[in-house]
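Morning F.,

Quick status update on the modeling queue. The single chain you submitted on Monday has been processed. Sequence for confirmation:
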Amino acid sequence: MIRHRLLAGAVVALLTAVPGLPGTAAAGPPRGDGLRPCALRPLPLPTGVAHGRATAVDPTGRYVAGIGTRITDGVWEPALLLWQGSRVTAVDTALAEEVVGVNSAGVVIGNAYVTAVQRPWRYQGGRLTDLPVPGSVSGAWVTGINGRGDIVGYGAVEETESTIPLRWPADRPGTVATIGTPPDGAALAVLDDGTVVGSARASAGSSSYAGWVLHPDGQLDRLTVPGRSNAWVLAARDGWAAGVTADDPDGQQHPVRWELATGRATVVDPAVQPVQDVTAGGVVLGLRAVWHPDGVTPLPGAVDGFPGVQAQAIADTGTTVGWTTTDRLTPVRWTGC
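Structure tokens below.
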């Protein structure tokens, strides 16, 4: 699952309307019509770590991953954080700039800026390693991982000012492959059956965008929204995808959910704008609220008078992770939302 921050210069053109990037319209406050007993609990920080953000959770809710900061003599140093229940492991590494995913085996993926180039990495079995990238790309990012360890992402091709979707297959360690999709695209999620979901230009030279689904048998389907000229996928899990739609790349955005089996699109409550994640049951996570078919549940801490909050990822169990902001960044977990 992705949250997913797309930083490559070529992808900025592809996803200019993605929430969190310039030009995005601000979302209104969440509606308070959810009736679930949603509770917020802080996640423990290791000794010596002053700040932390939980940015990924595996579908079972067993593993949570994120980023911590040590402050030594005024110097801020990053650390990769991995929680399993109440136990937390810290890995001091300069590569802990962005943690984007963790699977049910505890494999963590992320991105870092290394020697002036964006590079992806994987943390598995206590070892952190760089992922290979094609020689044709000027920088690469990972965006999603599935249960068996397949990883997807994209690379920036400076020569053509475009992007190409990439896959790092679990059964061929140390290799990377280009995914054949519509032109100028990015892979954003990989499902457990190998299905890859992403976004791309509607056609070569087009100014419109659409989501896409590449099935294991090679069939490619588009994800669009009737009456709207643009759609971007931001997350996918099992039979569902979620993202945003707009009449034009710089226009007003609306959160949307797709049923992958049929391609049917449903525009959902604006309280979950910007869209962060989606579960196997089709529940959509926003920055400060959770959307269910029967209503919206604001996340505790997201109302006036409380610390600022930012949700980042949600498990199929409903466990949601993110952080609160007061005088420090505190990693948190929401349950029952």
